[in-house]
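Q: Protein A?
A:
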Amino acid sequence: MTASANPFLRPLWTAVAFSAERWADEEAAREVGSRRVVATAVGKAGLISGPSPAPGIAGFAAVGPVPRRIAALLGPVPPARLWPPADGSLYAAALIAAAGTAASALSSLRRCRR
């Protein structure tokens, strides 16, 4: 996982993982024909798998991806969107990843010059 090698990429990895799960949820709801059935299945799978430990104090305040996925499935159907996404979260994650990569490259460059 690249987020382990470069911690600045963790927000991008989290955003991509959540977006992929939400996309799979919506596809499952479309195939099954009921968003409530898929929300129930996601909730049961989340209970069986147990809690995912979040590092540090921030983990106590974190909502987690499973409740967010269930809430999204129980809410209104999202409108069909074309690329690029309108909310900008992907742009923010890409900007953070680019800044982290630049910081890592500058740090490596400084070490090589010594």
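Q: Protein B?
A:
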Amino acid sequence: MSGMFGGNAKRIVCMWFPRLASDRILRAQPIDAPFALTIRQNNTERLHCLDVRAEGAGLHRGMNLTDARAFCPDLLTRPARPDLDARFLAALRRWAMRWCPWVGREGADGLVLDVTGSAHLWGGEAAMLDDMRARAARAGLTLRLGLGDTRGAAWAFAHYGRDDGDGLSALPVAALRLEAGTVTALQRLGLRSIGDLAATARAPLARRFGPEVLFRLDQALGAAPEAISPEAEPPHYGVRQTFPEPIGLVADVMAATARLLKVLCDKLHAQEAGARRLVLTLRRVDRGSQQVELRLAAAMRDAQRILPLFERGVSEVEAGFGIDMMRLEASVVEPLPVRQTGLAPARDAPDRLSDLITRIGTRIGLENVLRLLPAESHIPERSFIVAPAAYSAPESGWANPRPRPLQLFPPEPITGTGHRPPARFRWRRMALSTARATGPERIAPEWWLDDENWHSGLRDYWQVETHQGRRLWLFHTPQNPGWFVHGEFA
């Protein structure tokens, strides 16, 4: 490139992983057959990422899965997971920082490295590229490299040319990262290579295609700057403290925990985050360690609220000959934006409820503290779901305008005839008489679901107040005549 278009002090490497998604799967579980990942587009399953065998069988990205199986009957597929691919690429970005500290993402399957001034540490540019290839091959990754004076040139060499930084003018115009329609239009005009485009008058190109074509060309040639923006490392929510003399009393450990919590909560506040899980590690002088884990029912960063929740776990720690180091880490963090408070701030009901759930959860487990949430169903048994209170938000209430009993249990048969509630009946060994009945409310089964409890068909529900003080929810089944008690009101 420098021989044709002039030199530049910068040196950029583009690392392209053309089989990033499939390599991620095959590294963990090798498959001895053609393999591809699929993704659903416009109600059609299409190939998303293919391994070498699948490409050798004539398959290609974007191909209809049905057609692909016709070409290659032994093709094995899995659904694509773009979210996991993005996490894998983030891990590769950290891995690539061994060659230089300035590493950014290049699309969904590539990285860009500013290796200016770093190549000599590896014995030169050629040795550095060889090291990249060798390490990627050992990791089971398909890697194509491009080295150039600009980011655009490095991308072009990685995707369409060689990695030695030579021959940019001979590469196709698609190497300039242009839209497919623009590439086709340029080819129809006879502009098939970057050299052809660079030798053409700029004004007609700008009038016909707008500024994008010339801007991409200038980026590749170095006439227009293109920054590399490395991702900032995520904040680390961990603090530690060492002691000149070992400590062992619960009061001393809690005092140290309070100091660590103050520093940690300040970090969380600066990032507008809250901790959901805290791990307190206590290292003893004999190099043994113990951990106190605290799982919170809601994201918190208030040290005064969190500290008392550690008392139970700290009191159970065996200090041995003493503790010489403590470390506190927020292992699970959630966003917690700043809230507007009044002139006399006070803890509101949700905060008190979260503290209560946390205290109970430390004894029986947060998963065992449950709450009822409304569900979209008119069937009484399906009108609610049970969810852990710590991992769900309370909702305003049920949308059904009809009152529902406080207690709901499996239907219990009673004696009765006719379409109105019986005047007298026995239920749970009690003789009851009807004082007032309100209804009926007809509920039909959800025909699209197979529910054995509703095989009897329609139900006519009645609210029945008895002279004995019981308020029951009764229903009658017209198709198979019978009366049942399904719940009791408060």
